[in-house]
Amino acid sequence: MAQIMVIGGGIAGTAAALALHKAGFDVTVHEAHPDAGADIGAFLTLASNGMRALAQLDAAALIADLGFPVTAMTVTDEAGAQLAAMPLGEHHHPLTRYRCLRRAELGAALQDEVRRREIPIRHGARLTAVTESATAATAVFADGSSATGDLIVGADGLHSTVRSQLDPAAPGPEYAGQSVFYGYTADAAPPQGDPDRITMIRGSGAAFGYLVSPAGETFWFARVPGPAVSAEELATTTPGQWRDRLVPILRPDRTPAADIVAATSDRLMVTNALHLSPGTRWHGRRTVLIGDAAHAASPATGQGASMALEDAVVLAKALRDAETPAAALDSYERHRRPRVELNIATSAQLTASRNTDRPPGTDGPQRRDSERPAPRVDEELLRLLDWDTPLPGTPRDA
Ligand SMILES: Cc1cc2nc3c(=O)[nH]c(=O)nc-3n(C[C@H](O)[C@H](O)[C@H](O)COP(=O)(O)OP(=O)(O)OC[C@H]3O[C@@H](n4cnc5c(N)ncnc54)[C@H](O)[C@@H]3O)c2cc1C
Q1: Which residue has the higher pLDDT, 195 or 68?
Q2: What is the pLDDT of residue 366?
Q3: What's the pLDDT score for residue 27?
Q4: Is any ligand 1 atom within 6 A of the Cβ of residue 127?
Q5: 385 neighbors 56 (Cβ within 8 angstroms)
Q6: Atom of ligand 1 at shortest distance to CA of 303?
Q7: Measured from the CA of 125, which atom of ligand 1 is nearest?
């Protein structure tokens, strides 16, 4: 197999391009957006497992220059009382620390690195159809052009066209029961304690989290249970109107949440938390899904980007190490599906939980959706991600 077409130049697609290129394949990325700046501006936390995956692509140092590190988490209740304080992930090493950064920054840095390694990215290339045979796959684009290669990697996100081509009957993303508000403000001064700390608040009406950047800007989010926000509301509601809706939900609590939101002007955005049901078909003969296209989770565990980065490494290793494309795609799915579907289920459970609930497998203080349990970075995952270790069950592993 030589020529691979990656559909989507987001986090999964660019990471896959870096990984496949490193494994020796001839890769082209086809991205629908006409230029590199395709983001609404939300931030995310990249977890230690995501940073480890980036390290396998020789890109961790690049990302460690962006945003700021997050090394600890504090959890408080609605009265502001501290319930827990703990270190976060692999906080000792600068390249494996959690990082908080804007999604657009991460995407742009990965796209820059793809270009620096001279991997072609075609912008304005919106895929509309896929056909595949036993030996080849063809991508058809909205401008009437098409391209044929040995494999199509569908990294086209939550509303994936590749997924709907692979399985037209597959259910689309479903509402996970919360709307998510995000914002930034330089005009709030919440108590921060140590630097590099994320504070999670188990609020009475919403799960709230905030971090303060080294420049003194507060990054915050609120996950609010309730009906989905309609498309019309999303299109017509101004940041100020969203703020005025959110503040009264947070105000009854004796925490900094309401003041942080009240101090936010127009850098405030809202989205519905969506996820895919487990069991989606992941691959055909010459087509395979990665990232949100395969396994989008609601945001409570904060793992979507990190899981996409893990996918990229494992898919490239599978294609490098297996004897046939069919064996490689089976191997990729076998190694990835249990972990990412556990993430979807855990996130859904956290999203649905209340103070009285405790998701299975957690001990200590009762959890709810404001807390992000670190996914296991165990020996098995380290072997799966380690570039120089053959993928288990492949001929190179024998
Ligand atoms: C509210 C919210 C909070 C989140 N918080 C976190 C967090 O804290 N930590 C974390 O790790 N993750 C978080 N995530 C999840 C994370 O953003 C996603 O999991 C991640 O971006 C998935 O990357 P992706 O490349 O699979 O998809 P995307 O980033 O969506 O990229 C898909 C790309 O495909 C392109 N595309 C789409 N259709 C086509 C087409 N037909 N043809 C060509 N190109 C196409 C798009 O333009 C886009 O560039 C959050 C998500 C949400 C919604």
Answers
A1: 68
A2: 44
A3: 98
A4: yes
A5: yes
A6: 11
A7: 43
